[in-house]
Amino acid sequence: MSDYIPFAAPCFDTAEEEAVLRVVRSGWVSTGAEAQSFEEEFAAYIGVAHAVALTSCTAALHVALKAYGIGPGDEVIVPTMTFVATATSVVHAGAAPVLADVGPEHLTFDPDQVKSLITERTKAVVPVHLFGRMAAMEPLRELCDSHGLTLLEDAAHTLPARDGDAVAGRAGDASAFSFFATKPITTAEGGMLCTDDARVADEARRWSLHGLSRGAVNRYRPGHSAAYDVDRPGHKYNMSDLAAALGRAQLAKAGRLHARRTAIAEVYLRELAGLDRLELPAADTATNRSSWYLFPVRVHGHRRDAFRQRLHALGVGTSVHFEPLHRFTWLRDHVVRTGQGFPVADAAADTLVSLPVFPAMDDAAVSRVVAAVRRAHDEAGR
């Protein structure tokens, strides 16, 4: 590690280098056999029948909504405590996002709040498995089933995670994963849609590639017909073989990457316990396990931003997850309903700081973060 510990960094070795070189040397770098293999391997890892490799989790959410026929006149309930893409993918599908407040423990969906927002226009509910911890899927599943709603998981943070019998990525009708540079596994930029529904997977593929009936790999190879049809005004969301090669190398070591994140989180939970102005995230239990994509702490009793600046001065990078959606200008003006409040999200938002918890950190770096957090905490209390 350098003298400065960043908030996040990818964890690559020769496996990723060799994977990318393999594709470069093959002469085929766009969507092809590598992307197909990544889809098959990822589907098997999650435990679903189908996976569609895409350019982002946002794209996965978008084409999933389109595949379920959700569009103009429809409403989709999303949490206010999430990244903006959860809501804007609904807008891109032509539907209206409806913001819900979250529960106080994990800052994921409050099922009672979701229930209160269901109308005759509601067509889907999108729980976000925040920070790496799953939302409460059992009551949300029951709620969606009773109202005939699609349950679409935003699983961008959760590879892997589980809550009892529920496993992130296969607890809803479909799920969307992110492979952004900071995520549990990365393709630099990328995402995946997972589902057991063959129709939804096929619709997603059509929407993701201009509405084409056949992709380039099935038109340019020797002996293949060049003919294709276009049955919809689709998008350009297909993943390249270069990105898929990175993803396959990362997926092969996903267990080790998760184990390292978990080990770092356990050190933080042990060594930072007892700091009176620092609220730590919940620990794993035998039945509820986080991906530890993030390690969010809540800073009480002094200004969060000053705490972050002190950590920066001590050589530790941090981030903030998230500014609630209802505070952003466009969503405040176009999405938030008159008189609607979000007291739980508002109470938490200005206290949150995400500490480094990426697998490339060595033990010395973890110890430095602990020492810096303790020092920043003590100095702020003087």
UniProtKB/TrEMBL annotation:
Lineage: superkingdom: Bacteria
Cofactor list: pyridoxal 5'-phosphate
Any one GO biological process: polysaccharide biosynthetic process
NADP in keyword set: no
Residues annotated as signal peptide: none
Keywords per UniProt: Aminotransferase, Pyridoxal phosphate, Transferase
Keyword Nucleotidyltransferase: no
Matching Pfam families: DegT_DnrJ_EryC1 (PF01041)
Modified residues (N6-(pyridoxal phosphate)lysine): 183
Positions annotated as active site in the UniProt record: 183 (proton acceptor)
Any one GO molecular-function label of the UniProt entry: pyridoxal phosphate binding
Protein family: Belongs to the DegT/DnrJ/EryC1 family. L-glutamine:2-deoxy-scyllo-inosose/scyllo-inosose aminotransferase subfamily.
Protein's name according to its UniProt entry: LmbS protein
Organism: Streptomyces lincolnensis
Name of the coding gene: lmbS
